[in-house]
Design brief:
Radius of gyration: 29 Å
CATH architecture: Up-down Bundle
Structural class: mainly alpha
Number of helices: 12
Signal peptide: 1-21
Transmembrane segments: 70-91, 103-126, 146-167, 188-207, 222-248, 268-292, 304-327
Number of strands: 0
CATH class: Mainly Alpha
Helix content: over 70%
Pfam family, one: 7tm_1
GO molecular function: G protein-coupled receptor activity
Oligomer: single chain
Distance between the termini: 97 Å
Protein name: G protein-coupled receptor 142
Strand content: under 5%
CATH topology: Rhopdopsin 7-helix transmembrane proteins
């Protein structure tokens, strides 16, 4: 019935068009000139020779999730950003106190999470997507793409630095003691941030999957595959190899009775990398499904799956605080100290009004 009604409305429109344009314009050969009518599936003649997976559905896929993503990202930003700031202060104190490279890497990881929350969650999803309804100039959108992908790359590869540092500390302890220092850690972190910014520049030409109605071009396929490789597949392979070597090394040492089977720093490393692999897997799967099976623009199910996958992936920017508190007693004590110092600072800056009046009366009393 829907197809019949669509066909009937199309025929009526054609009839009205022919009536308005009567008589027909004549071709120089004497034959009436006929304008080709659009096809029923809304396909573009430029892409008629493209044989592929893209379903021929005329309308754009609706946003089934509705306002749920806006509420989710608002809660995530309002809770995750203060938590990450608190984590930054606590890790900065621990890094200055112990001078361990692992704390510097965790501090850089938290800083990249803050940048991700500001650039992707606030600017990308909330401001650009919800408030402005994607009515943003293309130059602004493409520039924001560079910052978003650079923040993603920095966050992932800082975790790679942390993994390599733990591997060297456990599997090559003598070399690690001779070469590790805060200055070396700072240079490595600066190199990762600079490289992340450079690798984000090609994503200036990234196509918005919610608006991409045409079949993917070669550039689009290349950028999406680079995104999947740089953000997920290559780092996860590094995590798998190094973490496996670390676990085997610790298991051998525990059998000799030298140290506990898993130290706290190693447990944090395994937790950070495992959470990243689990939370980012849905986005990568949906991205490849969009590329080779069904597009987000045309299929509401893929649209919904990408919305959910993005929400799950962004959760990775706010869960590390809970992981640190769950594993490290030192981190919990430092967080309590930071909160206590902040409370005392606020108390000293704003004393009760009765105390101020009392002090003024005491100072003025003798003079009276």
């Amino acid at each position: 019935l829907h197809t019949a009604s669509s066909l009937l409305s199309l025929l009526l429109g054609v009839a009205q068009h022919m009536a308005s344009c009567w008589p027909l314009s004549q071709h120089p050969s004497g034959q009436p000139q006929v304008t080709p009518l659009p096809t029923l599936n809304g396909s573009n003649p430029r892409h008629d020779d493209v044989v592929g997976h893209w379903p021929e559905i005329p309308e754009r896929s609706p946003c089934v999730a509705g306002i749920i993503p806006v509420i989710y990202y608002s809660v995530l930003l309002s809770l995750g950003l203060p938590v990450n700031v608190l984590t930054t202060v606590a890790l900065a104190r621990l890094a200055a106190r112990t001078r361990k490279p692992s704390y510097h890497y965790l501090l850089a990881l938290t800083a990249s999470d803050i940048v991700t929350q500001v650039v992707i969650v606030f600017v990308g999803f909330l401001l650009q997507g919800a408030v402005l309804a994607r009515k943003v100039p293309q130059a602004v959108v493409r520039t924001a793409n560079i910052l978003e992908f650079a923040a993603n790359h920095a966050s992932v590869w800082i975790a790679v630095l942390l993994t390599v540092d733990r591997y060297n500390a456990l599997c090559r302890p003598l070399r690690h003691r001779a070469t590790s220092s805060p200055g070396r850690s700072h240079r490595a972190i600066a190199a990762v941030f600079s490289t992340a910014l450079l690798t984000g520049i090609p994503f200036y030409w990234w196509l918005d999957v919610w608006r991409d109605a045409d079949p993917p071009s070669t550039m689009d396929k290349l950028l999406k595959w680079v995104h999947c490789l740089v953000v997920y597949f290559i780092p996860c392979n590094i995590f798998l190899v190094t973490n496996s070597a670390i676990v085997l090394r610790l298991r051998k040492k525990s059998q000799r009775g030298l140290q506990p089977w898993v130290s706290k720093s190693t447990a944090i490393l395994l937790g950070v990398t495992s959470l990243f692999a689990l939370l980012w897997a849905p986005r990568i799967c949906v991205m490849l499904y969009h590329l080779y099976v069904a597009p987000v623009y045309r299929d509401w199910r893929v649209h919904l799956a990408l919305d959910i996958a993005n929400m799950v992936a962004m959760l990775n920017t706010a869960v590390n605080f809970g992981l640190y508190c769950f594993i490290s007693k030192t981190f919990r004590a430092t967080v309590r100290q930071v909160i206590h110092d902040a409370h005392m600072s606020c108390t000293l800056k704003s004393p009760p009004k009765g105390t101020v009046v009392e002090l003024v009366l005491k100072s003025v009393g003798p003079e009276l």
